[in-house]
Amino acid sequence: MSTGTLPAARPLIVPRIAVFAGVAVLLLLGLLQSPFFGEPQPPAAPVLPALDDVVTLRIVAVDGDAIEVSLVEQQNVQLLQRFEPGESGFLSGLVRGLGRDRALRDATMLAPLRLGRNGSGGLELHDPLTGNRLVLRAFGTVNEAVLVRLHERALAAHSGTANEAG
Predict the structure, then answer these.
(1) Which of 109, 121, 125, 145 is the most buried (most CB within 10 A)?
(2) Cα separations (Å) of 137 from 27, 113, 120, 147?
């Protein structure tokens, strides 16, 4: 028979688990209200450096796969170069990519693009309608050279029209 002694007391584990679970729930609720789990915030617009030697160009597909690049100055549009189909795959891809992006915004490819040099001297193509900026060096030197030549031709045409006006 038993002598009336109680078994040895076990440590109180249940209250420790309850406290741990409560703290975990509070932390989880706090995290869910943090910016990590809240509604996604749009990224802040990057501050982009100004461009030098800027020319305004219209680059459009015409007659199927031909590409025309024109200098746009106020109300004047001057054809700089026409690339026949297969002549510049890079420009064709560029027009298709820009066209898709503009189509998502219900914008036309007739709106001009800005081409100029950034602070480090690299050539950039800027789409004012979408806010996109392409650093052309990223596409390789051969592809960049296509737009370098167009940029030089546009600057020469621009200075020629400025000299005629002045």
Answers:
(1) 125
(2) 47, 17, 11, 10
